[in-house]
Model the fold of this input.
Amino acid sequence: GWPTISDDNVLVYTRTSRASKQHMTWVDRDGKYLGTVGTAREALAGPSISGDDETIVVAARDEGNWDIWRHEVLTAKSRRVTYDEGTARTPMLSAEGDRILYAAARGDSMVLRTVSSDGSGEPQEVLAVAGETPSPVWTRDGYYLAYQAASDSGTFDLWFMDLEKNSAPTRLTD
Done:
């Protein structure tokens, strides 16, 4: 499954099986089962945990549509955050936990967007990228973005962008 590790080394992962539904599982650093998080869904991918271990965001498929969901660990509350037409995936919480960066399908391309982690307001487009864009990541300070994008040769190149300066993306690999 897709793992994410908190600052104090608690692991959350999506358990992949042939079961009709999937769920997220908490384990400690010794592998001890601590419980499940959120509601079982058709499929789950790419969880991201907040630094305080209280919030997890994950891409979840329900009724064939992928959206980003927020799960509160202490209160066991879940909330759908995105309502994109098409696929929303690879969420990542900001260091403060107030924003979510994710990739959304738009035709044959992907759009990197941010949205308030409580689901309020409209998503803000950060960057449109041709082809598939797996796993965008923010730096802890929120100033920089790194992501992979498919090249014409079929490989994935690594790109970097300074969000504070709103600079054009720079390709780091060939």
Remarks:
- The mean pLDDT is 84.
